[in-house]
Amino acid sequence: MAISPCITFIGGGNMCEAILSGLLKTGHPTSHVRVSEPFEQRRDYLRSKYGVDVFADNNAAITGESEAQASKGVDVDVVVLAVKPQVVGDVVRGLSAVLTKAKPLVISIVAGVVIRDFARWIGSESVPIVRLMPNTPALVGEGAAGMYADSNVSAEQKKQTEYVVCNIAKEYFWVDKEAGIDAVTAISGSGPAYFFLIIEAMEKAGAELGLPADTAKRLAAQTALGAARMVLTSEDDVATLRRKVTSPNGTTHAAIEKMIESKVPEGIEAGVNACNARCSSLSNEFGKL
């Protein structure tokens, strides 16, 4: 892209800040960012820390009217919806006129809401929409993400999406069916919590074996980080990596056998499938709003 797109964030929470911070660190101009945020204290914080225009009104944030200073006169290219699922229907309905008129690329990071519902709330099927599922490690620059684009999204707008995503995710992929976003949610969107659970269990076990709790936590966390790095950089598949560190009748073998006996792999697979099923049920619930 020759020119940095003008991006408006609807919702100024943690994920907005992660994307915003990444964009500005890589040279994206403050004149090409606007944020809408309902809470005054949060607006003041974002405005003070990042020097971008921050609005109380969603429509004004897209049009750049009234409160715009740094971004005055700049037309919006991308609108990132970063609001809670419970309010997204009302928010999008309130934006329907401006979205229909401006037809910016709409990127939704709202879990469980499908494109047909966005189109219904907007009142138009011609607004280009991308569903993006990032995850919370984006807050520390270690995110993963999946993306799905509807048929209105152009090749240039896909590049704009990747421009946004590359600032928060080290691994990101397009899926060719919208249902694939539910699978992305089940693996990487909710995935950090799975690893937190594992690290929590390892920390507890380490403390029970006599290690200071903080030492056990840091050992477990660094081990998880190192193992992940090996998976991403090794030519071996994951099963081979596991076998290479599992000597027959050794200490690791004893641990792995006990975990398999306790059906740890089956439990993790069941959890991923439960997450995927919940995504589908949430979509049905939002479809009634």
TrEMBL record:
HAMAP family recorded: P5C_reductase
All copies of domain Pyrroline-5-carboxylate reductase dimerisation, residue ranges: 178-281
InterPro entries linked: 6-PGluconate_DH-like_C_sf (IPR008927), NAD(P)-bd_dom_sf (IPR036291), P5C_Rdtase_cat_N (IPR028939), P5CR_dimer (IPR029036), Pyrroline-COOH_reductase (IPR000304)
Domain Pyrroline-5-carboxylate reductase catalytic N-terminal: 7-112
Organism, as annotated: Coemansia guatemalensis
Molecular function in Gene Ontology: pyrroline-5-carboxylate reductase activity
Positions with a binding annotation for NADP(+): I10, G11, G12, G13, N14, M15, A82, V83, K84, P85
Classification via PANTHER family: PYRROLINE-5-CARBOXYLATE REDUCTASE, PYRROLINE-5-CARBOXYLATE REDUCTASE 3
Family membership: Belongs to the pyrroline-5-carboxylate reductase family.
Keyword Transcription: no
GO-annotated biological processes: L-proline biosynthetic process
Protein name per Swiss-Prot or TrEMBL: Pyrroline-5-carboxylate reductase
Presence of the UniProt keyword Transcription in the record: no
Keywords associated with the record: NADP, Oxidoreductase
Gene3D superfamilies named in the record: NAD(P)-binding Rossmann-like Domain, ProC C-terminal domain-like
